[in-house]
# Entry
Amino acid sequence: MTTASNQDIPRKVAASQGFHWVAAGFRLYRKNPLLLSAAFGVLFGVVMALGLIPVVGGSLSELASPLMVAGFMAAYRVLDGGGELELPNFLAGVSGPAIPLMAVGAVQLLGTLLIGKIMLGMGFDAQAIMAAAQSQKDPVEMQALLNQAMPAVFTGLLLFTPVIMATWFAPALILFGGARPATALGVSLKAVARNWAAMMVNGITLGLLLFLAALVPMLLGLLVAMPVLFGSLYASYQAIFAVWADEPAPSNVVSL
# Structure
């Protein structure tokens, strides 16, 4: 076994860091709020527009999402370094490692499709539930339908958790570290697992932020909340990977 660099080994941080990452994301967002919000609106609109293409739209949207994440990671690195943010910064994923980033999107897509099939096989039918709710069925029948769907929902959440863990840091690892998709997914999975407490605090804080943003009419609050979320993701990457990489490597660290 060979000695590994700290860039490849996720640092373990305190649980309280999960909240501080959101605060750091908000501070970064305040450096150029108008451009960050506008960029999110445009890029999110493009991703949603891809989803409207018949047959292949959903797949294209899923493949494109890591490109948007990478663009925001690049934008926040510019702001963090004291640089002046420009629109081309948000296209860093497209102009850079587009294929590896899209490979991460492909993993998300395949995972979603597979988990969806498993849930469907367990009796979960989202369209049937929505149709029943709209038709205002008898409460007893509606409750029975929900009871039938709950095991599939819990199973889906359980199976989708490692997919989220593996893809959470993958775009940043590919963009900043030049990692291959498989390596990025594995390191991201380990990073989230190793920092589960901080990630849980971060997730709860971000969830509350998104809930409050959703209360703003026409979902305009998301134009602030989502860029802050990306800023939080950048801050967490810096804390777990980039800052750690600047510290001396322990002599007993070995490659994964």
Residues 139-168 form the longest helix (30 residues).
